[in-house]
């Protein structure tokens, strides 16, 4: 009859007909070594999978704690950057956020149109005269009225 250890040794050595009396010391040691290696390999694989799962959950919790904190209100872009681009703890990020000014909308937001800049070749606006094109002539005329001559 095989003991549990003999079954492990038999499996490691690829034999099913081993008994306690028929296993040599080197074969016994080889079986123990194979069983230990198998156990370590299985343990590492299982531990790695569990570690990845736990690490991902902890990171999600950290990000959530930063972006949903009271200190993040009015500083959402900064909070998102601290959560995703650093490895700060939620407490460290909260301290930074508390010392960061809130983004406040300007009174001009939405009321001042963006300037339209035409970068067409020659600086012209599609056949329109470029701003400042008459400046040279105007300056020369003004200097002439003052009795001065423009230097080219």
Low-pLDDT residue spans? none
Strand pairing plus helix content: what structural class? mainly alpha
Helicity level: 40-55%
Sum up the overall morphology in one term.
elongated
Distance between the termini: 114 Å
Helices and strands, in order, run as HHHHH
Number of helices: 5
Number of strands: 0
- Could you give a short account of the major beta sheet? none
Average pLDDT, all residues: 80
Strand content: under 5%
Return Rg in Å: 39 Å
Description:
The mean pLDDT is 80. Among the domains are: 1-55; 68-101, no CATH class. The relative contact order is 0.05. The protein has 152 residues and is an all-alpha fold. 55% of the residues lie in helices and 0% in strands.
Short description:
The protein has 152 residues and is mainly α.
Secondary structure layout plus pairing:
Elements: H1 4-13, H2 25-67, H3 76-85, H4 90-98, H5 135-145
Helix pairs in contact: 1-2, 2-3, 2-4, 3-4
Task: Give structural attributes.
152 residues, mainly alpha, 55% helix, 0% strand
């Amino acid at each position: 009859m095989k003991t549990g250890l003999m079954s492990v040794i038999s499996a490691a050595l690829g034999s099913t007909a081993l008994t306690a009396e028929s296993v040599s010391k080197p074969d016994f040691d080889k079986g123990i070594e194979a069983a230990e290696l198998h156990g370590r390999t299985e343990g590492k694989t299982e531990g790695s999978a569990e570690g990845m799962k736990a690490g991902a959950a902890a990171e999600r919790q950290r990000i959530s704690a930063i972006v949903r904190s009271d200190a993040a209100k009015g500083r959402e872009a900064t909070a998102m950057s601290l959560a995703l681009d650093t490895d700060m703890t939620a407490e460290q990020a909260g301290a930074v956020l508390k010392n960061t000014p809130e983004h406040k909308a300007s009174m001009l937001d939405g009321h001042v149109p963006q300037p339209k800049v035409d970068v067409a070749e020659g600086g012209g606006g599609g056949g329109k005269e470029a701003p400042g094109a008459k400046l040279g002539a105007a300056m020369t005329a003004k200097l002439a009225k003052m009795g001065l001559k423009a230097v080219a």
